[in-house]
Amino acid sequence: MFKGLDMNGLMKKAKEMQKTLAEKKENAAGKTVDVSVGGGMVQIKMNGNLETLSVKVDPEIVDKNEIEILEDLIRAACNEAVRKAKELVSTEFSDIMSGLDISDLSKFTS
Q: In the CATH scheme, what architecture does the domain 30-95 have?
């Protein structure tokens, strides 16, 4: 069907990559990022699966009259934790993409 294309080799590479991706995902899930905002008033720990593992709030800032400030700090901490966790995962997967040889795929064109 595609002259010169080693389908068996391509399938082997795909399976190896799938295994490597699963290992990287598992590895990233085991890593965590810690975020602190408001001078440490709100802290969040998140893993590489973007799961929030813990939220800590300094009791000093819990005031029913200033609940909006607390909400803003928690939102900011969550957003920063997601950003850092995505960065962590991106770093984990970057070596796979840099080592990926897709030169065989050029045989699919023309």
A: 2-Layer Sandwich (3.30)
